[in-house]
Give the backbone structure.
Amino acid sequence: MSLKFTRHARIAIGIAIAVTALSAFAAQTCIIDNLRMIWTGDTVVEGGKILYVVECPQGHKALALSPN
Ligand SMILES: [Zn+2]
């Protein structure tokens, strides 16, 4: 059994972890530096749900369930 993940799969896992972490808090703040995340204007569809790509002032990106 191969545990070799593609680059894309690793990114997807990272995003899934980020979404889980963001969902735990009412305010959207960066999980790395706790700065406020701002919607970049981009959206992605994951599992039939629209997720909003948000970014903190230091450039860390995550996905959020709402744009603000
Ligand atoms: Zn950050």
User: Anything to note?
Assistant: Strands lie at 38-46, 49-55, 61-64. The pocket of zinc ion is lined by residues 30, 32-33, 35, 56, 58, 60 (CB under 6 Å).
